[in-house]
Amino acid sequence: MSAIYSVAVDLGERSYPIQIGAQFFADPQLLRAQLLPWLAGEQVAVITNATIAAHYLPALRVALDGLRVEVIEIGDGEQHKSLTSYTEVMDTLIARRLNRSATIIALGGGVVGDLAGFVAATYQRGVGFVQVPTTLLSQVDSSVGGKTAVNHEGGKNLIGAFYQPAGVLIDTTVLSTLPAREFAAGLAEVVKYGVIYDADFFTWLEANVDALNGQEPQALAYGIRRSCEIKAEVVAEDERESGLRAILNFGHTFGHAIENLSGYGAYLHGEAVAIGMVMALRFSERLHRLDQGHTPRLAQLLGALGLPAKLQGALDREAFKASMGMDKKVVDGRIRFVLADAIGKVSITDHYDDQILNEILDEFNEHLAA
Amino acid sequence: MSAIYSVAVDLGERSYPIQIGAQFFADPQLLRAQLLPWLAGEQVAVITNATIAAHYLPALRVALDGLRVEVIEIGDGEQHKSLTSYTEVMDTLIARRLNRSATIIALGGGVVGDLAGFVAATYQRGVGFVQVPTTLLSQVDSSVGGKTAVNHEGGKNLIGAFYQPAGVLIDTTVLSTLPAREFAAGLAEVVKYGVIYDADFFTWLEANVDALNGQEPQALAYGIRRSCEIKAEVVAEDERESGLRAILNFGHTFGHAIENLSGYGAYLHGEAVAIGMVMALRFSERLHRLDQGHTPRLAQLLGALGLPAKLQGALDREAFKASMGMDKKVVDGRIRFVLADAIGKVSITDHYDDQILNEILDEFNEHLAA
Question: Which residue of the set B32, B192, B225, B231 is catalytic?
Answer without folding.
Answer: B231
